[in-house]
Write a structure and sequence with these properties.
alpha/beta; 6-stranded parallel sheet; 6 helices; binds flavin mononucleotide
Length: 191
Amino acid sequence: MIPRILAFAGSTRRESINKKLVAIAAHGVRESGAEVTLIDLKDFPLPLFDQDLEAEQGMPENGSNLKQLFIDHDGLLIASPEYNSSIPAVLKNAIDWVSRPAPGEPSLVAFRGKVATLMSASFGALGGLRGLVHVRSILGNIGVIVLPDQIAVAKAHEAFQPDGSLIDPKQQAGIEGLGKTLGSFLMKLKA
Ligand SMILES: Cc1cc2nc3c(=O)[nH]c(=O)nc-3n(C[C@H](O)[C@H](O)[C@H](O)COP(=O)(O)O)c2cc1C
């Protein structure tokens, strides 16, 4: 069975540099022979998670749709900005909603056993590395196998060409390689 990878950025910004980054890595996934579905969290607006809201109104439709996408894929490719040295609220909020079990459902069905690769792009000199530490920890704690290789693109507002590719060919190949490695890993796992 051909593995399927869900790819997205932890940003809803229209001109997000992390959306550009994850699109490059998605290209690498396709080279591995795996399938990739590139989504934008902006298409799944969710209220801030509130347990009272959940108890009164249940899971919002966008939450169910996003959770189903996670369930239907074997891997996750995530490019996340760093906000104040940590995970952006929009990404954590999406993870929190997707982590909620339907009545009678085993816990964390959308996360357990999935394989993920992380990357980041940020304006700062560390490229969002400090945020990835937190994203890695959160995903690991909810049953996701996060592959060791990751890349943080520093000073990313200066790193891209107008066509969305990276100016530095080595960096471009590195990001494509992350997607390819994730795809190849899942191809072996599913063989
Ligand atoms: C609330 C907030 C906090 C930020 N904190 C950091 C930070 O800790 N480190 C950093 O390198 N950039 C930080 N930035 C700048 C982001 O790197 C920059 O906004 C980047 O464009 C976000 O990624 P995006 O383009 O994918 O949305 C912050 C931006 C915002 C809005």
